[in-house]
Structure formats: structure tokens, C-alpha cells
# Entry
Amino acid sequence: MQILNGNEVSKKLREEIKNEVGMLKNVGKKTPHLAAILVGSDGASITYVAAKEKDCKEVGFDSTVLRFDATMTEAELIAEVEKINNNPAIDGLIVQLPLPKHINEKKVTETIDYRKDVDGFHPMNVGLMFKGLPCFLPATPFGIIKLLEHYNIETIGKHCVVIGRSDIVGKPMSALMLQKNCTVTVCHSRTINIEEHIKRADIVIAAVGIPEYVKAHMIKDGAVVIDVGITRVEDASTKSGYRLKGDVAYEECATKASYITTVPGGVGPMTRVGLLLNTLNAVKNK
# Structure
């Protein structure tokens, strides 16, 4: 068994991005600029946006974070998005999710100029992705593809089972694995005999949001196991009062898998580097 180390791979990719940004600056090209909008005080969102700011600084990007109270109206948020759409100094924009319940996330996402949609959520980018055309890929599936490529994991002719059908991970992940010449099965809460599908998989990508859902008896010997899930589970024995759990029962599945990701340190860092790569491409493709 070999660990797919997202921390190490993302560090290598960030260094490559930093070098490329340096070369752009040396020839008088624009410095990539990523903007983020944060509405409200969700703890996980605050942490994630702070990590994105840190990443931008590390690779030499400019970054802007606009923070607003949860009382902000939908119209006010859309107006802020339009300002950034019309600002040529900013190359990429993310609106951190989730948004307060009174704001329509779909409407806000579709307001973002697809040429600045470095999260890859705009319908234009989704359509281009499914056609296999140049676009901004959703950061988590993009990061997973980069992780598989780094470890030279064979995908041609392999059977990949994606557990979960979200717009953010499951659906785009299935499309990208098809483009990698896998045979793809997408399983979800309504799938009958789901374990039988998972047992046939050469590559399992778990994005179901249920801690330790995938058990050792559900995977075959030698499977590649990618754990997208990350859930805070109460644990009084830790200083924080909780422990992070993935969708895969790591200890038992590691005894059967050929490659496996950890939580944390697996997919999470690759998601962040996927966002950086999209922002860099936003400048290069202008």
C-alpha cells in the first residue's frame, strides 16, 4: 500500500506555480489576482478563505478578500459580483459557499463571469468540461486528477466507481474519469446493491459525506481509494474536541488498497492547488 500524499504533491505544484508566476512577471505579464467574497461567519468558510489567502501569497499572486455580514441581501451580493466581473485587475473570483439561506446560490454562481469562474461552477464551464473543451475545472476533481497523474496511476480501461453525485465533486469527477478512459459507475443514496458496484471498482472515489462509509469488505484487493470526505466528529480525547474523519475507514481499507489518500492531507491540499492552477490559467489564456 502506498499513500497518495496530497501535501507533498501540492507543495511541488505550488512551487511550479510560483516559478511560472515569476517568469510572467519577468517578461512584463500580469500578476494573477484572485478575489474571494465571504458572506457571514461560518467557521469552516473563514478558515478556508484564510488558507486561500496564504496560498496566494506563497505563489506570488495578488489576492483580495471582501467580507460581508450575513445580513447582506442577494441584490447587494450580486452587485459586488458584477463589480469584480467588470474589474480587469481581477482574474479569478470565488464566492465562498455556503451562503446565508436567504441568498440563492445558483443565481449568484451564474452571475459570475465564466471567464473568472475559477471554482468551475458556472454552467458555461460545466458544459465545456463535459465536452472536453478548455475551461475552468471544479477544483476538487481537478486536484484529484493531478494527484492520479503524479503517481502515474493507470486509468485506461479501469473501472472507476464514484460514490456521490454532487455538482461540486461527483458529477464532474465522473466526467473527468471518462476523459481519462475509465469505465465509470456513479453510485448514490438511491443505488441498489451499492456494495456490489464498489467491490468491482479498480478506482474508488468516495464523496458521500458519511464518515467511514467505505469499509474494507466493500473494496477489492489492490483498489485505488480516493477519500474526498471530511467531517468533524466529536472526540473528547482531543484538544479541539473533535476529530476529522473521511468517507473511508482508513485503517482497515489501507490493508487492501494499492494506493489510498489520508484525511487530512490527501484531497484537501489538492483542491486548494486546483484553484491556484485555474487562476494562473485565467491569466495565461487572456
Remarks:
- The two ends are 43 Å apart (CA to CA).
- The mean pLDDT is 96.
- The chain has two domains: 28-113, 139-267.
- The chain is about 40% helix and 15% strand.
